[in-house]
Specification:
By secondary structure, this protein is mostly helical. The protein has 3 domains: about 25 residues; about 80 residues, Cytochrome c-like domain (Cytochrome Bc1 Complex, Chain D, domain 2, Orthogonal Bundle); about 90 residues, Cytochrome Bc1 Complex, Chain D, domain 2 (Orthogonal Bundle). The protein is built from 11 helices and no strands. α3 crosses α6, α4 runs antiparallel to α6 and α7 crosses α11. The protein starts with a helix and ends with a helix.
Length: about 220
């Protein structure tokens, strides 16, 4: 390499380092959930992703998938967490620290996750009989228990609509956990319809419908 080319290479590397340094030195502040200057998308990628995955396709059944979720639903839930209105144990443990998010940040975070490819289905290890029972409940309900079909509100393909969440592809464990919360507590605001619908649903049927919705979608 001649002297001129070497000097140009060194200069380019130095410029690259200088451009990168602000991002590195500001990494801590960009992860601060009480800093109104941080863009919501940055928080989504650098903070929310720790539990929900970079694109919202959570790999852990402890944490719901957010990818392709209805934006209105995401905004309502994040607003409830922010105001400490949603009081289920996972919510208080992991989400109550977001009280200082601005309206703009909430908009940007929910924009980011709702615009991702919809959550992927997973029916691994579930027996066909359980899935078949879950499908019946999802499409027809349990009339003798006054349980209406899930499709009535959540859509024929589990896609959700506005404030009604997408269920297709969600973790079965998470769906079952939420059913139990609706059945036995008042910890989910906006939950009155689900409390009424799930109140008398047997455990085996709750498990079946949770497994079925997890199997829906691509």
């Amino acid at each position: 390499m001649n002297r001129t080319r070497f000097q140009l290479t060194v200069a380019a590397l130095a410029a690259s380092v200088l451009l990168t340094l602000p991002a590195c030195t500001n990494l801590k502040s960009s992860r601060s959930v009480d800093n109104s200057d941080v863009k919501g998308k940055v928080l989504a990628v650098q903070v929310c992703s720790a539990c929900h995955g970079v694109t919202g396709g959570s790999g852990s059944p402890m944490f719901p998938k957010l990818s392709g979720q209805q934006k209105e639903y995401l905004m309502a839930q994040l607003t409830d967490f922010k105001g400490h209105e949603r009081k289920d144990s996972k919510g208080t443990q992991y989400m109550w620290g977001y009280a200082d998010l601005t309206r703009q940040q909430v908009e940007e975070i929910t924009d980011y996750f709702s615009s991702q490819q919809p959550m992927h289905a997973n029916a691994a290890g579930v027996s066909p009989a359980v899935l078949a029972r879950g499908q019946v409940i999802f499409t027809q309900g349990i009339p003798e228990k006054n349980v209406v079909s899930c499709a009535t509100c959540h859509g024929a393909t589990g896609e959700g609509n506005g404030a009604i969440p997408r269920l297709a592809g969600q973790h079965a464990h998470y769906v079952l956990e939420q059913i139990k919360i609706f059945q036995t507590t008042q910890q989910r605001p906006r939950g009155a319809p689900m409390q009424a619908i799930t109140h008398d649903m047997p455990d085996a049927d709750s498990e079946a419908v949770a497994a079925f919705v997890a199997s829906m979608g691509s």
